[in-house]
């Protein structure tokens, strides 16, 4: 510290120290105890500090400077401190009113108990302190801190004053914008309308003159803040916002600048730049700015020197310029500003660690889970393919088995078919012979012959129809699923066994449902199901002694299902066998294979249906098939 002092200042201090030493020596000679007490009282002396704020205690940027100065002062002061704060609210008004009552208030407060030092923060507080110091604190040292050099009233400075000035360099701030975003065509400037802010609007205009045509400057100082927000929300591309200050807007509304800045940041579609450290960290991109730390450390150092007895006139500092540029990484990302555009020596803050850095072990866990899951999925896919193959294969087998079963059924149908074919073929023969006879007649009745030929044709069609149906049932086909009408399908199956039933003297009746029954299925397979059930029913009634021999086939609609019921008047199924009849190779017949019902069940289930059997109370078995309806 002494290295910075002028020689004039050193001499009196040495003299004072010599006197003090002498006094202490004398005291020590008398007694050691009073010397220690003197030391303690020197250290314990309370210092009263008066802190004068400009717009209010919570107004950025000054509030941040004030907070930092206060904290550092409390930390560095070797004396206990009594810091009293007052805010100069009149600076908020566009037309400042009378300050006299506030001055009188301070006067009555400090009369007879003068502060040891007065610290003003910001230009309005500095002006006020200078204007009223003669009345309020004529002999108290005054530190005018955080004042832009242009606003220092040098004419009224006294020997008892210290100025900690800052220097705004708007050209540097705007150069920073154009350096980062060279395509910028317009810069909109946000500065409020209080007297201080009006002063700055003029200063910025004056300083930016050399920019000339390079960029268009838009001034928002005569707009209410609401309107500024509206405009900032839809700025044309290649526009940047310059945030000067917003303490009082053109409508006279007072704003805490940082809250206003945050709402601007929330709505705007353009990057915001500011030259004040207190606005950095969330809303602005960054650049060269005033550093709170530097200004407050100089202010505190000056205050301690003065409180320690140094003459204020000897404490002198040059105005503080902008600190080396600093940038907010998040804003650089948001506006796509490459780090290569930043000036050398820049500092980037708020860099967000990437997701791998931030959630290292969670990411490792997720990756591991993904890998395990991928393995499981591929395993399952492989398994599914295998199952599908197996399914296709088993269907193939089923089709083959069903085909074999159809042959055996057809074997039983031979009589029926022979009978069905016999009838039309017999008629054809008789009709042909009759026609031959008639043609021998010299004047044959041509109408009659035409009639006979028509009969022959009809019988031939009947015979072909029998063969066509037989072919259809015997055709070796894989499953051919389509939309079918169940009443028709069952009717066709019954057509194949009518003659067999007749031959065995069994009454076969069919009662179709009154509504159409649309299901998805393979008609040939389903006909085989019906055939198997009818043949089994007829087999059960083969005992010649039975009086009533009847097979009733009905189709009904039961909710969202279609049902085919095949009931007979046979002996029914022994209750012990009810659970086994669908098992493969279960048979009670001497030459039975035990495959019929197993195939029936497999076919029904392949159609997403169910089959059940029960003995009717009045005798005989009833098989019920349920198939899901399409509508
Ligand atoms: P199979 O006809 O070769 O014996 P099925 O699987 O068609 O093979 O029938 C299995 C058994 O179920 C038959 O042997 C018979 O005992 C019994 N069964 C099937 N349908 C009836 C029925 N309508 N009445 C009485 N028993 C039946």
Automatic annotation (TrEMBL):
Residues spanning the signal sequence: 1-37
UniProt xrefs under InterPro entries: HATPase_C_sf, HATPase_dom, His_kinase_dom, HisK_dim/P_dom, HisK_dim/P_sf, Sig_transdc_His_kin-like_C
Root EC class: transferase
TM segment ranges: 361-381
EC assignment: 2.7.13.3
Keyword Nucleotide-binding applies: no
Chemical reaction(s) catalysed: ATP + protein L-histidine = ADP + protein N-phospho-L-histidine
Pfam family, any one: HATPase_c
Annotated GO MF terms: phosphorelay sensor kinase activity
Occurrences of domain Histidine kinase (ranges): 416-631
Swiss-Prot/TrEMBL keywords: Membrane, Phosphoprotein, Signal, Transmembrane, Transmembrane helix
Xref: PANTHER family: SENSOR HISTIDINE KINASE, TWO-COMPONENT SENSOR PPRA
Descriptive protein name: histidine kinase
